[in-house]
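Field log, afternoon session.

UNIT: design team B
ACTIVITY: writing a sequence onto a fixed backbone
BACKBONE:
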């Protein structure tokens, strides 16, 4: 599969991801000014249905926060796509950012 540019693990409150995200996206845009990005919300594939639903709701909030960070950096919304998946390997809610 594709390697994510950035993986943000929301395994605690107030994860300080902005600087790492900004640095990675800035470096990418220096090399590929036309680059677009895929934001993928990843939830752990375990627990009961209600736990899974709660995780999906939480990761959606995290993803929206990351999206807002990218928009605040001046990236046009047209160059960001959102999707969601679940993973057997992730231990916490994560947001993966890929270069498209």
């Amino acid at each position: 599969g594709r390697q994510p540019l950035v993986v943000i693990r929301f395994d605690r409150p107030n994860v300080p991801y902005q600087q790492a995200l900004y640095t990675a996206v800035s470096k990418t845009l220096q090399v590929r000014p036309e680059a677009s990005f895929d934001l993928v919300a990843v939830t752990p594939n375990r627990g009961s249905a209600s736990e899974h639903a709660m995780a999906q709701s939480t990761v959606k909030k995290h993803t929206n926060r990351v999206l807002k960070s990218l928009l605040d950096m001046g990236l046009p919304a047209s160059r960001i796509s959102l999707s969601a998946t679940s993973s057997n390997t992730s231990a916490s809610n994560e947001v993966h950012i890929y270069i498209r």
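LOG NOTE: The chain has two helices and four strands.
NEXT ACTIVITY: expression trials, pending approval
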